[in-house]
Amino acid sequence: MAQNIYDRQDFFDAYIKYIDRSSKDVDTDPAWSRLVLLLPPVAGLDVLDLGCGSGWFCRWAAANGARSVLGVDISQNMLAKARGLATSSTDEEASRIEYRCADLDELTLPESDTARYGLVFSSLVLHYLADLPRVVALAHRVLAPGGFFVVNVEHPIYTAPRNPRVVRAAEENGSTGGDNTGELCWPLSGYGDEGERVVDWLAKGLHKYHRSVTGYLDVLLAQGFLIRAFKEFFPTDEELTSGKADEMEKLRPLFLMMSLQKQN
């Protein structure tokens, strides 16, 4: 069973403050500007959003002509927020969106959904799931031939360390790195040690699962997906200058984005 930390009130409150403070939305988030390029045209498609959170992608898909959108998330708090934000969509668009509460590690969809969806989307969710092969198999089953599975995960370089942090490296003159003179760097450790990580982000005790790039690709390719695009996110100089992205994001890739297609 996946951790439902968004229904832990201390984490949820901190998360809402975080997204309000960051003031990022689907139109201004630099990562979205890359991710949207991996998507097929959604007009006329049935769309499944695995781990829909506050429903931002569901609303975007409906606004861009998706025939139907199903958003699934484990958190009642996030789904309540998604339904509360439905007022940002027209009534006709909102009528094409359905939200469902379910644990993606245990999600089942009826046989009638086999080969139904033209797009399965999942952003910043798969690294929270213990059973990746199961959810990838589910996505493959419900996709129509030629349909796309577009995913965005925390980059394995970001998820690998058990104590993730930015430090200053020791300089050639013998500095130990504790005097604020060395170059900023991201210490990479544990990359080949796949498995659960427990980190503190917004609140203590966030559980996630580190997988190497090979770990992800092995599961996706074994299911029969074709890789159509593969992107690592780094901000541009313009995004850094304008404040849309943080300089720390230059030190290590934060996101790994993939567009995968089910064979005809």
TrEMBL record:
| Location of the Methyltransferase type domain | 48-151
Q: Which Pfam families match?
A: Methyltransf_11
Q: Which residues form a coiled coil?
A: none
In alphabetical order, the GO MF annotations are: S-adenosylmethionine-dependent methyltransferase activity
List, alphabetically, the SUPFAM superfamilies matched. Answer: S-adenosyl-L-methionine-dependent methyltransferases (SSF53335)
InterPro entries according to UniProt: Methyltransf_11, SAM-dependent_MTases_sf
Sorted keywords for this record are: Methyltransferase, S-adenosyl-L-methionine, Transferase
- Full protein name: Methyltransferase type 11
**Whose protein is this, by species?**
Purpureocillium lavendulum
